[in-house]
């Protein structure tokens, strides 16, 4: 008899509240002083939680399809700018085939990407172009290829001295793109790591080593004031702690069918167009 998922539900509810508080803060509401106004954060929180739910349940459903024992999602509330450190599911049994690796690895990012794309389109259409004045200490979100293209199509060319004041739904969509690209990095047991291992086998480890080294270098360059994002150094360290080696599958079927190869190609394309070298910049 399966246990009732108390921990999953409690973490989900806590993350709903923490993202609501973060969304309200974006709207200028201090929920400690005026807790009754926390619902001002609903557009952001509702969008972000939907993206995370689609991402994690994409993995969960694919795992069930391939008879892989996986937990329900664990959401992580956090006192961060967006109110969460994301969510994850735990695999309690090995992934048996390469096809299952591709399906389980790609299903979450692709599902989350679709919702993030819709959120960015809606959020950008509700955003305003404003004059840029006295931006010292403000937080700026970097541009991926896809987000830049969407902004240009929806809002047109942004003249010098002006910038986009992004609607909270658009902010959630931007973070959805960012989470998608992070998960699709082909390292270790990230989603992209599952896909890369299914395609490359043992050669995947060499890719992981190179990418961790590149991220570590970018983090160092950022600390030296030479551009980039210091978060890449933290991400590289985290990858080393979690491990860059991917466990083998039980059955190495060959060749991988065309459908799975196309899924891997789509995942790579999504990674390229959502990747942001300097995602978060605080102006001086």
Structure overview:
With 284 residues, this protein is mostly helical. The protein has a domain at 43-70 and 96-183 and 253-282. The protein contains nine helices and six strands. A two-stranded antiparallel sheet has the order 1-2. The longest helix is centred in the middle third of the chain and has 28 residues, at 98-125. The radius of gyration is 20 Å and the shape is globular. The N and C termini lie far apart (57 Å). The model has no long low-confidence stretch (mean pLDDT 92).
What is this structure, in a nutshell?
With 284 residues, this protein is mainly alpha-helical.
**General form:** globular
Biggest β-sheet, characterized? 2 strands, antiparallel
Q: Please tally the β strands and state the result.
A: 6
Ends apart, CA distance between termini: 57 Å
Q: Strand-and-helix sequence, N→C?
A: HHEEHEEHEHHHHHE
What fraction, in percent, of the residue positions are helical?
A: 55-70%
Derived from helix and strand composition plus strand pairing, the structural class reads: mainly alpha
Radius of gyration: 20 Å
Low-pLDDT residue spans: none
Mean pLDDT: 92
Distinct helical segment count: 9
Proportion of residues in β-strands = 5-15%
Report strand order across the widest sheet: 1-2
């Amino acid at each position: 008899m399966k246990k009732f998922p108390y921990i999953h539900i409690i973490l989900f509810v806590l993350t709903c509240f923490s993202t609501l508080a973060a969304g309200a803060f974006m709207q200028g509401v201090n929920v400690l002083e005026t807790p009754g106004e926390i619902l001002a954060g609903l557009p952001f929180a509702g969008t972000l939680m939907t993206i995370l739910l689609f991402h994690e349940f994409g993995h969960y459903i694919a795992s069930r399809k391939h008879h892989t024992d996986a937990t329900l999602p664990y959401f992580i509330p956090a006192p961060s700018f967006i109110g969460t450190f994301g969510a994850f599911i735990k695999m309690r049994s090995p992934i048996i085939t390469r096809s299952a690796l591709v399906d389980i690895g790609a299903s979450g990012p692709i599902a989350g990407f679709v919702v993030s794309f819709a959120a960015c389109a809606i959020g950008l259409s509700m955003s305003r172009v404003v004059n840029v004045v006295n931006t010292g200490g403000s937080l700026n979100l970097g541009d991926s290829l896809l987000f830049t293209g969407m902004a240009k199509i929806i809002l047109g060319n942004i003249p010098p001295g002006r910038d986009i004041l992004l609607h909270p739904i658009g902010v959630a969509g931007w973070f959805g793109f960012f989470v998608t690209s992070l998960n699709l990095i082909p390292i270790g047991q990230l989603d992209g790591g599952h896909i890369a291992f299914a395609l490359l086998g043992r050669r995947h480890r060499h890719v992981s080593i190179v990418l961790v080294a590149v991220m570590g270098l970018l983090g160092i360059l950022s600390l030296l004031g030479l551009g980039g994002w210091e978060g890449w150094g933290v991400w590289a360290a985290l990858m080393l702690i979690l491990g860059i080696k991917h466990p083998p599958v039980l059955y190495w079927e060959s060749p991988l069918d065309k459908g799975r190869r196309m899924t891997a190609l789509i995942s790579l394309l999504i990674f390229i167009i959502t990747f942001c070298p300097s995602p978060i910049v605080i102006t001086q």
